[in-house]
């Protein structure tokens, strides 16, 4: 039963991801297909076409280990060793400052729960 | 050999994850630690990235379904999200604009080439979008994707510390902020903090990608 749930869950998640990619390509939208797949899953859950129980095990597992799937892409940074060596410090400063400003601004505007909106 | 590298990636990931749970620090961030270890292993054994590349292609197949899976926390937290939608949208728009302006401003101060400037302006969109946008603006696409990844790792490492430092303890806003500034890698970090953070991170990541791809071509003539 548990295995069946996993198979159903993974098939649905794969299917929605593929469908998302197809939609993005067909209509040449500038959004990742997987983000469209995420919205599709939300809509299908809201309309009760997909039941939470079908996907909660597999979806829970994948989101818990989401970081894992980014590791290989990050390893790809080693191909840019030369650029990072040449402009490393100024580039790092730029990334850090723009990140810090962006985060403080975003956090400030979004605010805490219960603040007037 | 591909299976060896996939196996090693899983091993390094499990090790990094255990370490990050035991000692929470920017340097035990799972993506940062795993990536550093794998690059070191490749360098020490005298291999180039090409040896590892096939493992990337296989593991990233699962990145799509894993991102789709964020729809579940999104569904579970939808009432909270809708209740705070107005401020959240404002935060995503003003937040991503501010990071673009500061990045391009500093990039000009350091007189980076236009390719690097374009890469910096698209860095907060998720990598596939950064790649596509840079191509559209006639910049270097792979460079843009790499800078986006670096931006994601830095945000996932230092974002939580920064947010705690400014006393932002609200899981909604913590996730939203990490997703807006550091896309998927930031969202992955947010998801480990709180399910609500994972949900707002995923939503913010998607909305930032949409907003950035809409606004950058308009801003382009003024920015560069």
Describe this structure in words.
The complex is a heterodimer of chains A (117) and B (224). By secondary structure, chain A is an all-alpha fold. Chain A is 74% helix and 0% strand. In chain A, α1 crosses α2 and α1 crosses α3. The termini of chain A are far apart. The model of chain A has no long low-confidence stretch (mean pLDDT 89). Chain B is mainly α and 224 residues long. Chain B folds into two domains: 60 residues; 148 residues, no CATH class. Helices cover 83% and strands 0% of the residues of chain B. Chain B is globular and about 50 Å long. The relative contact order of chain B is 0.12. The interface between A and B is large, with 74 and 108 residues.
**Approximately how much beta-strand content do the residues of chain B carry?**
under 5%
Find the structural class of chain B using helix and strand composition: mainly alpha
Residues in helix, % of chain B = over 70%
Q: DSSP helix count of chain B?
A: 12
Major sheet size, sense and barrel closure of chain B: none
Determine the mean pLDDT of chain B. Answer: 89
Number of strands of chain B: 0
What is the CA-atom radius of gyration of chain B, in angstroms? 18 Å
Global Rg of chain A:
20 Å
Q: How far apart, in Å, are the first and last alpha carbons of chain A?
A: 45 Å
The most extensive interface between chains reads:
A-B, 74 and 108 residues
Percent of sequence in beta strands of chain A: under 5%
Find the count of extended strands of chain A (DSSP E, 2+ residues).
Answer: 0
The global form of chain A is extended
Poorly predicted spans of chain B: none
Largest sheet of chain A: none
Order of helices and strands of chain B: HHHHHHHHHHHH
Number of self-contained structural domains of chain B: 2
């Amino acid at each position: 039963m548990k295995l069946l749930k996993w198979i159903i869950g993974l098939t649905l998640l794969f299917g929605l991801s593929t469908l998302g990619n197809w939609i993005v390509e067909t209509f040449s939208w500038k959004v990742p297909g997987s983000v469209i797949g995420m919205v599709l899953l939300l809509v299908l859950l809201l309309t009760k076409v997909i039941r939470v129980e079908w996907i909660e095990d597999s979806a829970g597992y994948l989101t818990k280990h989401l970081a894992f799937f980014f590791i290989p892409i990050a390893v790809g940074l080693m191909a840019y060793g030369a650029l990072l060596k040449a402009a490393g410090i100024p580039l790092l400063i730029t990334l850090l400052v723009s990140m810090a400003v962006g985060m403080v601004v975003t956090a400030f505007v979004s605010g805490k729960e219960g603040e007037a909106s | 050999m591909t299976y060896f590298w996939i196996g090693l990636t899983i091993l390094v990931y499990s090790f990094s994850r255990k370490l990050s749970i035991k000692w929470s620090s920017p340097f035990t961030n799972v993506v940062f630690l795993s990536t550093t270890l794998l690059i070191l292993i490749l360098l020490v054994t005298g291999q180039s990235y090409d040896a590892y590349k096939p493992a990337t292609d296989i593991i990233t197949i699962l990145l799509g379904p894993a991102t789709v899976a964020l729809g579940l926390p999104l569904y579970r937290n939808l009432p909270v999200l809708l209740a705070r939608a107005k401020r959240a949208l404002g935060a995503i728009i003003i937040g991503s604009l501010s990071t673009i302006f500061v990045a391009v401003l500093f990039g000009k101060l350091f007189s980076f080439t236009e390719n690097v400037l374009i890469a910096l302006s698209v860095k907060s969109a998720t990598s596939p979008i950064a790649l596509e946008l840079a191509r559209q603006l006639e910049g270097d696409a792979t460079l843009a994707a790499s800078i986006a990844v670096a931006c994601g790792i830095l945000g996932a490492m230092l974002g939580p510390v920064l947010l705690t430092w400014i006393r932002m303890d609200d899981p909604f806003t913590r996730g939203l902020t990490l997703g807006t500034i550091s896309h998927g890698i930031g969202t992955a970090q947010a998801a480990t903090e709180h399910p609500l953070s994972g949900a707002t991170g995923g939503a913010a990541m998607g909305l930032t990608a949409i907003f950035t791809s809409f606004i950058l071509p308009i801003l382009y003539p003024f920015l560069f």
